[in-house]
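RETRY 2/3 - previous attempt timed out on the joint model. Re-submitting the same 1211-residue input unchanged.
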Amino acid sequence: MNNSLLIVLIASGIAYGTPLLYASLGELLAERSGVLNLGVEGMMLVGAVMGFWTVQRVHTSAGIALTAAILVAALAGAVMASIHAFLVITLRASQIVSGLALTIFAGAAGLSSYLGNDLNLSDAPARHTFHAVFPASMQRWSVIGPIVFGQDILVYVSWACVIAIWLYLSRTRPGLNVRSVGESPAAADTMGINVTSYRYAHTLAGGAFAGVAGASITLAITPQWVNGITGGAGWIAIALVIFAFWRPELCLVGAYFFGALQALAPQLQARHISLGPTVLWTNALPYVMTIVVLVVVSSGTARSRLGAPAALGNAYAREER
Amino acid sequence: MASAVPAVSMVGITKRFPGVIANDQVDFEAASGEVHALLGENGAGKTTLSHILTGLYRADEGTISLHGKPVAFTSPREAIDNGVGMVHQQFRLVSRFTVAENLMLGDRRGAGRHFRIDPGAVDTQVRDLGERYSLGVDPRARIWQLSVGEQQRVEILKALYQEARVLILDEPTAVLTPREADLLFATLRQIAGEGRTVIFISHKLHEVMAVSDRVTVLRAGKALATVQTTDATAQSLATLMVGRDIKPVTREGQARPDSPPVLEVEDLWAEGDRGITAVKGVSLTVRAGEIAAVAGVSGNGQRELAEAITGLRPYTKGSIRVKGKPVRAGDARSAFEAGVGYVPEDRLGTGVAPSLSIAMNLALKSFRNNCRGPFLRLGPMRTNAEHEISTFEIKASGPDQQTDYLSGGNLQKVVIAREFSASPSVLVAGSPTRGLDVSAVEQVHSFLLRAAENGTAVLLISEDLDEILALHDRIFVMYEGGLSEMPPGASVDEIGLRMAGQAAGAPPA
Amino acid sequence: MRFTFERRLRQPGWLSLAVPVASVLFAFFVAGIVLLATGHNPLSTYRQLFDAAFLQTGSLNQTLIVATPLAFTGLAAAAAFRMKLFNIGAEGQMYIGAITGAAAGLYLGGNGGSSAFVIAAMVVMGCLGGTAWALIPGVLRAFCKTNEILTSLLLNYVAGLLLTYLIFQSQSYWRETKGFNASVFPTGKELPPSAVWPGWTIHVQGGITLPLGAGFAVAAAVVLWVLYKRTRFGFEAQVLGDSDRAARYSGVRVRRKILAVMALSGAIAGLGGASQVGDFAHSVDGDPNGLQKLGYGYTGIVIAALARYNPYAVVLVAFLMGGLENAGNTLQGANFPAGLVGVIQGIILFSALGGEVLIRHRVRIVRTKRGVAATEPGPAA
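RETRY 2/3 succeeded.
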């Protein structure tokens, strides 16, 4: 039962979907404050390399090393995001071009690769990795065993994050404020809400989440450092925010769906099942499906408009005439 | 009425923007318990002064004190905390939020103070305030579902909820019917009667005369005088405000049943941006040389009607004919090739491509006829631009200047120059003078009249009743997507009632 | 103290040259700090870099080889970005152009067509391939309002997978199946001699070959400039790039224009792919660590932005960036930090972006009198 393709796909979809979930939650926070950050891929890569470096170089117990790695990854992601924040919030540069610049700066041919090489990280597997939290006996329970109890701590924390962000946005005062900043910065400003600090805070938080997302790849899914290891996950995460109508609970559903698609290729190969004519088809499936879902979502124009923060992508300046 | 210590005192306020001095050594005082009007033409510096008082702008020079205590606001937050609230001309509401959520935004005193928020908690307060000041509105409604008048109520409620002791309203009547404006005045008197200060910004003399206790007149960034309203006359204020005699454009409006019909619209239906039907079965005929003026409160489908006629918005049902030839739905090019000119309401976003040169914007429609094969003829384009800049008295450094550096009036002249030089047979103009200073208004009006004299069928859409009354041959009123014609010689009151959706003669609700 | 940005009433002309130059200098300065922080000597690293890029024997030749595809992708990005169509799919469009261009070369060259005819066919097929691939996001944007940034980017991955698949995972037309080497390591089929693009050799620095593709790139730049500055098409594109609503108001058929610009952008990138095959590789490079690692498409974006979307400047910047990339490739491993070039490019782009603000605005430093709201305790600091 637990070895059936469906159960395995769901369980590994959750695992593979976790980096997507963290990254899309972060992007959601930034976008809800009105800042589009296309640099997710780059921030993830820097988070991935710095998290991995921490685990390799900090010689303590696994628990401390991994905790430190996650914190370092979050910090690294936030530092990357701060460049974007400065350019688009303070200097009011184009959010699209700045985000692309961040991807180039930090991405597979940039800082992450520089650090990976310079710190000699590609020669060994991770010294510590995240493992399933619950005992093996529980993981053997039918259906819920592998799906619910077979996951590592990052998965459970991500569930907490989804609930926390959902509550934050819908039930708290800062949540109300950030939504107003993303919808109508002029209105927020008039009511004495500091648009600049809210945007900075959420863009940086978004970067931290992207950093964690990257580290969750190098420390849980494929515990090693390979240049460009994210393979476009950052872009899928940005698309996920659109699919999710800017709602955290739907980010979770979308992330696991795309996680399952990524898990599909290796699972099918392991079972010698061929889906469609070629291996090309299976490999390209996550990307093609992302495009297909994007088209479906954006065709229902009215609905997607209902989700997007009205001021997304717009710089705000009070004294411009 | 005026107590010893003024509620608001601004001394020597100067504010410069690149290229302009918006406020030049302005002194301004308002007392507790009074409605104080700030009167001046567009561009006189009224809004800038109020933005300084609410902490949105920082003055370059000058001091402010409230109830005798000096203050220097560095943010709107501090102004709110010190009891200064403002209703902006462009509402500062989050349209996807509910009324209650908008009220709680930035709230530091009431229900919005807590980390956990519960928009339901302010429901009763909204209802109480609404009842007390006749500003009823459903606290659970989302802003975009409300009419413009209701949105203004939310803005006033917001200030009252924040316990503002000084309430500033920037041109509040522009979006109201005459009757709604009267109700607003009563509310403002009531608020002032409680010992608060109401600062009422306007450029309309009769409103200022009707509601204020004192008037401060601003002209070209300078405060000229503060007078008791009872000591002033509309004429004396007008002279102060404009600095010269105004010769308002007027004409003898008359229907021209003998002229050939040029624009014929029949049973037209069109949808608004949110997919809700905005134009509902409009029929209208405009004849050559006629100015058909459409009055109505903003948001009743006027913009959608204009866009449907000019091909910017596809219509779902009905027909449009220009000189007998049908215009295809949603095809702007076929509309202007059929002779429809359009001076859009949104001049900076739609009327021009803001960061392109004036020459390009003047050629925005004609460039297709000014080509050799696929190549543009830049020489003639430039010569033509120079010609139009001088004909229409556009103040610019030259045809290569970037268009959005122009002032509002000159920008509008660029649009008008382009549309007029194509000698259109139909001209649709949406709020063509909104936000322009008095001399630009005069010029735009005379351009419109000249177009009508030359036989153009003019469809003038405006929220400004004075403008409508000054220019019309026939008056129409648009309300909730429907268009109806007023009988010749209808009074302002009758038009106002129709704008509020009541048939003339029916008792007010 | 705080900064305010005042809009300049007039933009001084010298700034539009000074800002990009300053951006480059600033980028080298910041990257120098990164180098110092990671224990490298910036001066000697930069010296190595310039030697490898422009000075040492054979370096200019190598730089041209890198600069040629960069000029194409830079022009592709400039053509689209100028209209605020963010086609970041030049990478994938270039792969597809390489595949279709190679197909034409293999097929026609193998059947004994004349060289000029075969090359012309490769150019046309390369353009068509890139256009077709670019029209996917173009059609989706025009008819479904789907964000073209994400779709064009995701298609890069798909095109990369396709490239690998054709050479490594299938017995496709493009794969070499005969010979000893082919059985050891999968490679692309070699173009017949008539399909190889000629070059002109100048005898300095050990011989510099000007590839035919570089000529096409310069021609493409000229065409692009004329198209945007001197034609009806360009007029409409400029209006649409500035304001969507003004464009519809002036009668621009917006959908058609989106399709046309995406097609144009894709064609240029596709031509770059054909040049890649015809000029340099002479076969389809399916290796994930080959063409795909170089990221020409992404660097093209940096080039276009730094050139402020001016086609002539794109060609010039592509040459300089080509030098940088070339140096990065040749020095890799030999005591030279990998990824440094990407870091420098990223910072150049950041500072060029920040510099845009200086072109449009004057920065004023305002000393604030701290708030003395009487009813409130003065804010700390």
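Chain A has one domain: 5-307. Closing ticket.
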